[in-house]
Every structure is written in structure tokens, then in C-alpha cells.
User: What shape does this take?
Amino acid sequence: MSVERRDPPLARAARRARVVVPVALGIAAVLALAVAVAVGRDTAAPVTPPPAVVTAAVGAGPAGHPVVVLGASISAGTGSTPEQAWPAVVGRCLGRRVVVGAVPGAGYVATGRGARGPVVRLLGEADLPRLDPSLVVLQAGHNDVGTPDPQLRAAVTTAVETAHREAPRAPLALITVVAHAGVPTEAARSTDVTIVDAARRADPRVVVLDPLTEGWTFPRVADGLHPTAAGQRVLAGHVLDDLARAGVTGPGTCPGGAPAPA
Assistant: This one.
């Protein structure tokens, strides 16, 4: 004879509790996770977009037809300040407003800090048709040292063609490789030659300011590359001399005396 075994009421209740409690805890955990994710989405700080590359214009000249300078850390004022950098000095000497778009580490191929470059991207952000500049200056090359020649040549050609298409009435000047103090490396010289050749093939009228060939010297900070505030004034003197010799600008009159090349 089989005997049906019946659990006491308390045992049955305990068994049900053991099943219900883990299930309840599991549901609670899932709900808590869902709430946490939802809260995280609602309360997470919004992603701040990178700041605009093109800065406010410097200089007290007329707002119309500014000088536009697009480049890398030398133009951004690394080692000094943007107000002490050569574009601002040149603007003060010429009495013209200067719009600067500069990204440390950028080049014709190199994208630079925050991937805000290369130069052709800076040209797009500058909106040259709206600015209708009187002069466009591209300063780049150091950060492209070691880039394969065909890639660099194509990037320079694109940048020159873009500048002329966007600002057809403005003269275009290029400041090529600024190398570390001392004897430039063969890689730096090769990069410089490629940039100059590609630019002149794209536009024989381009004004080339070539620090390596011309032997520009200026005081630098400890990294041996970036100008000090005094070095930026000397650099501005080189730029002013070359632009005046090319007939792009006049000699300029600088407050407190003209910066002179070393």
C-alpha cells in the first residue's frame, strides 16, 4: 500500500518562500539595472563638441578682407600665447585684422590635436568665401615629416587648389617646414622640397616662405622647436620681409619698433 506523504503546512510555506525570494530578487535586480541605465542616460553629462578651430580675429584693422592664417602650433602660439604669436604681430604691424585657425600637430596630412586637421579641413572651417580675405597663409610641414612623398604631394596640391577655389582673389602664401634648432634632418629637407614643389606645380604664383632654405633663426623654448614670445616677433619679421619682397604687402609699421629677423 502506498502512502501519500503530506508535508506539514509550515514546510510547504518555507519551500514556496525559497522559490519566490530568488525570483523576486532576480526581478528586482533587473529592474534596478534598467533604472540605473535609464538614470545614467538621463543624467550623464552631454558630450561637449570640440571648440571651433578658427578663432576670433585679432588686430584692429578693418573687419572686411582679413588676413587668414591656417596652420599648426607655430601659428597657434605654442611656447608663448596666441596674442604673442606671429600672426597677431604681423596683423599689428600691417594694421590689418587677422583670422587664425591653428591646430597643434596639424599638417597637410597630419590631423593634429583632436583630429581637427589637416590643412584642407581648416580651409573648410574657415569659410573663406564668407571672409573674402585679402591674403591666405598656410603654415604647415613639420608635422608631415616622414609622410610618403605621393601622399604629401597630393595633400599639398589639394590644399592649394582649395584655397584658390574658396578665395580666388586672395594671394596665397605658404610657410613651409619649421624644423628643430640645429642642422635640419634629411627627412625634414625632403618634406620641405616636396611641399614647395607640389605647391608651385599647383600654382606657379604661390608665395613660398621657406624657413629651411632661408635659414630662419629665432629664440625658442626648451623643446627646441617653438618660438618664445621674442622668437615670435623675430618670426613675424621674417614673414613681413618675405611678403614685402613678394609684393604681397607693404613693409608695415610695427608698434614699438619693427621686428627684425635675427
Notes: The chain is about 45% helix and 10% strand. Strands lie at 67-71, 98-102, 135-139, 172-175, 207-209. Residues 1-11, 17-52 have pLDDT under 50 and may be disordered.
